[in-house]
Amino acid sequence: MSTSLANRFRLPMAKTLRVIHLVFIFVFVLITFLFWQQGQLFNQGYRSSQLGHLESVIARLESRAQYKVDNLRYLKRIFIEAMDDPIFPGSPVTPWELNENTIQKPLWIGELPLPNSVTEEEAFQDKKSLEVRQQLNGLRKIRGLFPLATGDNELLADLYYISREGEFIASLSKKVNSLLINSYNPFEKQGSFVLASPLLNPKRAPFWTRQNIVNSDEALINAAIPVDFGGEWIGLLGIAFDRQSVEKFLASSLPDGSRSAYRLYDEQLKPLTKAVGAENNLQLSAEQKKTILNMLAEKKRGTLRSGLTFITFGKLKGTHSILVNTQTLGQGLHEEFGRFSLLLVTMFLIFLFFLLGAHSIICRLVRNMGNLQREMQHHALHDDLTGALNRRGFFAKTSQLSPNYVDYTLVQLDLDYFKKVNDVYGHLVGDNVLIHATWRIQQAIRSQDVLGRIGGEEFCVYLPNSDLKTGIRVATRIKWELESSALILENGLKLPITASLGVASHSEYPESSLDQIQTLADMRMYRAKTRGRNQVCWQDDADLEA
Ligand SMILES: Nc1nc2c(ncn2[C@@H]2O[C@H](COP(=O)(O)OP(=O)(O)OP(=O)(O)O)[C@@H](O)[C@H]2O)c(=O)[nH]1
Predict the structure, then answer these.
(1) Phi first, then psi: what are they for 366, rounded to 5°?
(2) Can you tell me the distance from the alpha carbon of 44 to that of 37, in angstroms, rounded to the nearest whole number?
């Protein structure tokens, strides 16, 4: 089919496909936007739910911390009252309390490596011995309360008292004692003691401190309250938490069924505990720490998405610590928001699958329809036997071409004695002669020339940009091509093929239409027949008679 004819059918199909692509792109963008919007809502919901969890843990931690501080206040009162308690007036300090081997005992008296510390012997020989005894009375009284503080309430387990002069340290457990001693740094003069001074703490309020433990990464968290007696600051009453007890404390504050990992950090984001809750060994990177600290400088709580991990963080009041919650994608998917998000993603994928499927089916249908249409068009314009243009196709094509070419020439040709071929050898051989003749004619013409089978054994060749002379030359070449190539039959017999040709050119009658030129060529072809066949005729009767 010629390109212009083919284009007539290709263009609408390309246009239809373009419209289909656009419609599908529009649907895809619209639905993706709706899913994205829904995803944003889920995201916001997830953020606030994570913040809500964090808030609840922070609230529990703060209330537990407050509870401990309230108890410290209460114990301080008992302690001071007990110092004046006449129950043990002037009672001697029993030797086991002074013996260093008694360190295993719940109430241990030892010596902190304070500069200018007073030795035990000195403490009980000079005037200070009374004061020491008074303090021991107070501690005995508090110790009397220890049995009441068993079970879940571990408040008193890590309770300690340090006299201001560092003469003794006393607590329930040997572990806390040794941690306190190890965390003590005489050169820094102990943060707790500085913060307990009346100058820095005129209200004598409880406070929290963090002490590094020498030769380890661990730290001790202290809730402490200054103790004053007789108008003088005499020591510190406190509760010490080592890492395990802080972790226990944190774990007991987590909401039931939490799928997140919580970790407590100090103000510089140095970890105070291991991760507690759902297993998650995430280490905050330097970049993440920087971002979190920057965000915390502006507000108390925040969230951060880091890869597949979601981080929520918030400051704790009073304790100078930061609680960080991390949730991995896997952990999040077990929660309600995670399940909804998974459902949303699955629905989107299903939608995408169906959209792509529908798009491919519709495009295939349109292409098939286009191909079918092209095939039908091809059949409508072409001869099935020879593949050349049929009468309709030939005139459709040449009438399209002729306005572009001022001069054109037509060669009309008719095979000679074709009826005989059919009659003698049968129609099949007749068909083969037609196919063979078409092929031979095509050998004799140029690619821009148009060949059509316009009747049974009748052909017409359109020669664009050609005058009569050229037409005669081409017609003679066709005649020669046909007569010089007989069809070889199955039995080896050579079947000669000849044709009578009539040539007419538009240049002869410039005012004539294509139909008129074709009629003229046809008349000349008949003249060639009557003059004996197998010849080219380009003249009219008048010319011949002349
Ligand atoms: N095998 C075959 N024969 C065809 C086809 N189309 C037309 N014919 C036959 O072609 C023959 C044409 O015969 P005529 O018009 O008498 O022409 P002719 O026998 O070639 O004689 P002249 O043209 O005078 O030389 C007829 O017998 C048609 O049946 C075709 O597609 N296949």
Answers:
(1) -65, -40
(2) 11
Distance 386 CA to ligand 1 centre (A): 15
- The Å distance, Cα 389 to ligand 1 centre, comes to 18
pLDDT, tens only, 6-28: 555 455 778 888 999 999 999 99
Model ipTM?
A: 0.94
CA distance 87 to 101: 27
Q: Calculate how far, in angstroms, residue 446's C-alpha sits from the geometric centre of ligand 1.
A: 27
Distance of CA 150 to the CA centre of its chain: 53
The CATH architecture annotation of domain 84-247 reads 2-Layer Sandwich (3.30)
Tokens 């037409």 identify what position? 471
Percent with pLDDT over 90 in the chain: 41
pLDDT digits (tens, 9 = 90+) for 449-470: 999 999 999 999 999 999 999 9
So where are the chain's domains? 84-247, 391-545
* Bridge partners, 212 (sequence order): 219
Residue 415 CA: nearest ligand 1 atom is 20
Q: How far apart are the first and last CA of the chain?
A: 44
β partners of residue 461: 411, 451
Q: Which two tokens stand for residue 326?
A: 């991390």
Atom of ligand 1 nearest to the CA of 385: 31
The CATH label, of 3.20.20.20, 3.10.180.10, 3.30.70.270, 1.25.40.10, for the domain at 391-545 is 3.30.70.270
Answer for the pair 288, 311: CB distance below 8 angstroms, yes or no: yes
Asked if 158 contacts 176 with a C-beta cutoff of 8 angstroms, the reply is yes
| pLDDT tier at 237, thresholds 50, 70, 90 | confident
